[in-house]
Amino acid sequence: MSVEYIGLSEINGPLVVLEGVSDASYEEIVEITIDEHTKKIGRIVESYEDKAVIQVFEGTEEMSLNNTRTKLTGHPMELALSEEILGRVFNGVGEPIDGLGSIIPEMRRNVNGEPLNPCMREYPRNYIRTGISAIDGLTTLIRGQKLPIFSGNGLPHDELAAQIVTQASLGDDSDEQFVIVFAAMGVKYDVADFFRRTFEESGANSHVVMYLNLASDPVIERLITPKVALTAAEYLAYEKGMHVLVILTDMTSFAEALREVSSAKGEIPSRKGYPGYLYSEFSTIYERAGIVKGCKGSVTQVPILTMPNDDITHPIPDLTGYITEGQIVLERSLYQKNIYPPINVLPSLSRLMKDGIGEGYTREDHQDVANQLFSCYAHVGEARALASVIGEDELSDLDKKYLAFGKAFEQEFVTQTKEDNRSIEDTLNIGWRLLAILPKEELDRIDTKILAKYYGKKARE
After folding, report:
1. CB atoms within 10 A of CB 356
2. Domains of the chain: residue spans and CATH
3. What is the pLDDT of residues 320-362, one digit of tens each?
4. How far apart are CA 105 and CA 169, in angstroms?
């Protein structure tokens, strides 16, 4: 027999306090009825003695201390799942918003996930092709990896995310099933409409699951959206054997929602006002990626975050960098040069790249070409700094060649249109063509056998 609790003892922003509660559990879902007709759901985020603090997902509007009835469900938030979710659009808590009706569930899963034994993880191998040279060639995304994109306000991370969704694949010769779970948190309506329209027009809709939390939606919903998306991804990967790419945008909105709720709870703030448990909240999300022994599928994450004031030392990118395996950094100065995507390859890094490329995965020369392009582009920065002091005309012939290489690298390798879906062969061939600008003796990061095999041939293609 379920017990209903009449009234509340306190309302504070998105939080309410219920007194006289027995057997309440952390993360338990509660059902709240307002004035006998409006129903909302919430979750218990704190419990002590006979009190329970509840986050209300739909917000506390219309609620007062004496017009509510609250019932504990006895279980955490669960998501209804079946293969029907592919091609569907849901709100931030997993309710359909595309007008196609409810999902007939094959199973229900706790959105908080289950702890994964590290011994059951397999080391990530094989790459995911995005069709973007600066990513595929130099910061390769590996199946089972978590590789964030560090962006800034006004930079085209939304366009880049949409391009990754429409172009990503396991390669031309793969027959394994590949799907994408896309979760947007705190986005404006026009941005959400842009994603929907882009996926429909590209034909990617059939293998994409969308979870949209709009800026006008309650803040509390923002905290549950990434967990809902990852629960769907884990179901498709570990129950259905699919390879799943999860794109989460924007993790800064998630962190700011966490800060707002923490402030409402009266917790002591840490760096920049964020709660001290921001790191553990991030890790519970990011660590839900990987490959599990005995399962055919995999979960790969590309979280996107906007760095406040382009500050890479801000707590959000700083803590994200501790947990994830690299980062892709968007640079404002490149964007101002009309370069798309404005990826600065020097601070960008994929720590798992070395084990998912090369012979048998991409092409035997991939690692050498990537190393040499990094080295040469780093030298370009030195040549540009010297030119700004003594003038370009006073540079040596070699430094002038490096300047020419740097310009060509940004215009031909990094720059590509939103419709340009390059194969890994195209990317590497462009790299060889650019390296041919420099004298052969400058290419000291490439094995001599690979240099002899590819240098002249690929430079002429």
Report:
1. 22
2. 4-76 (2.40.30.20), 79-355 (3.40.50.12240), 366-460 (no CATH)
3. 999 999 999 999 999 999 999 999 999 999 999 998 998 888 9
4. 28
Spatial contact of 258 and 274, defined as CB atoms under 8 Å apart: yes
Burial class, 37, CB count within 10 angstroms (exposed 0-12 / middle 13-18 / buried 19+): exposed
Q: One-letter amino acid identity for 294? A: G
Arithmetic mean of pLDDT over the chain: 91
| Tokens linked to 83 | 């293969």
Separation of alpha carbons 198 and 166, rounded Å:
8
How many residues comprise the chain?
461
Taking a C-beta distance cutoff of 8 angstroms, is the pair 170, 243 a contact? yes
Beta bridge partners of 187: 214
Token pair listed for 141: 């995304």
Residue 298 in tokens: 């995999």
Tell which residue, 277, 320, 251, has the closest CA to residue 46: 277
Residue bearing the bigger pLDDT, 276 or 59 = 276
- Backbone phi, psi, residue 89, to 5°: -120, 130
Q: Stretch 93-120: mean pLDDT, rounded?
A: 89
- The SS3 assignment for 124 reads coil
